[in-house]
Amino acid sequence: MTAQRHTELLDTYLLNVFCLLLAERNVSRVALKLNQSQPTVSVALRRLRGILGDPLLVREKSGMVPTERALKLLPHARAALAQIDSMLSQPDTFDPATTRQPFRIGSPDYLAPVYMSSVCARVRREAPDAQVTVHALGPDFDFERSLAEGDLDVVIGNWPAPPDRMHMSILLEDEIVCLVAADHPLAAGGMTLADYRQAVHVVPLPYSMTQRGVIDGVLASERLERDERLVVQSFNLAPYVLPGTDLVFTTSRHFAAFYAKLLPLAIVPAPLPFPSMRFYQLWHERNHQSQAHRWLRRLLGDCGRELSQIRPPA
User: Fold this and answer.
1) Of 38-47, 190-199, 200-209, 255-264, which gets the smallest average pLDDT?
2) Is CATH 3.20.20.70 the right assignment for the domain spanning 176-275?
3) Which of 9, 54, 150, 163 would suit a FRET pair with 98, their CA atoms being 20 to 30 Å apart?
4) SS3 content of the chain, % helix, strand, coil (to 5)
5) Rounded Cα distance, 166 and 148, in Å
6) What is the pLDDT of residue 81?
7) CATH says 102-172+278-308 is which class?
8) With 70 as the cut, is the pLDDT of residue 314 above it?
9) What is the third-level CATH fold of 3-88?
10) pTM for this entry
């Protein structure tokens, strides 16, 4: 079959099915995403196999896995779809006051709650009919794929080494402090490095299995091991276990200040040379030029700058 004939047979629908099949590796899930029946997607897979002359997906014990040729073709298919979208798209106009567009933000729970509160208040003022979904992140969540496939518009993170395949801008830099119970022996007098080493600590489960956080990175560089006596499933739970205990929680100042107002807690300067905790937003090239996404990214940046001007009480 000639290259021209391949081009005639491969339409945008089949390209989209191909990309989704390699991402999901499951016909049923692709059918659900496309709001189609499973047999319809199975027919599309058979057509793709015939056109491309390759099984594309083969069955293993763990499920369906892509062939080597399929993986080589995937970036070309994605690039072709992006080019077609760009060619067919109408002039990009956006009015936040009238839009009903949904916006999807991936955010970790170690971000200070006051930041997202500020974001939501600003969206309600500027785009009252827009829908905002805040998606929780976790070690098993593939945020890069979600950005590439359009499931998320923006991801907020603070990993020391953000993926270089994404666009990035800084939202906020925040000091790292220690949060303890108000009646903790170190609450009034401060904490030395020896105190920190001897203390018992509460830590959340890691957010990424591949990236070490700022705090863990500094501890490793200083060859300092802390007694992580209590591990909790989220950052938001950690402050609630501190009252009445001798536990220490190391976190950002704005996060600590929020919970210090709600609970009998005290903020103590960290006795280690932690750098600022830097929060940034990440987005994919696919919506880099979109006026709607530019508005969202500008709003997120403005809220970060406003928060950075506020010095939380010690």
Assistant:
1) 200-209
2) no
3) 150
4) 45, 20, 35
5) 9
6) 86
7) alpha beta
8) no
9) Arc Repressor Mutant, subunit A (1.10.10)
10) 0.69
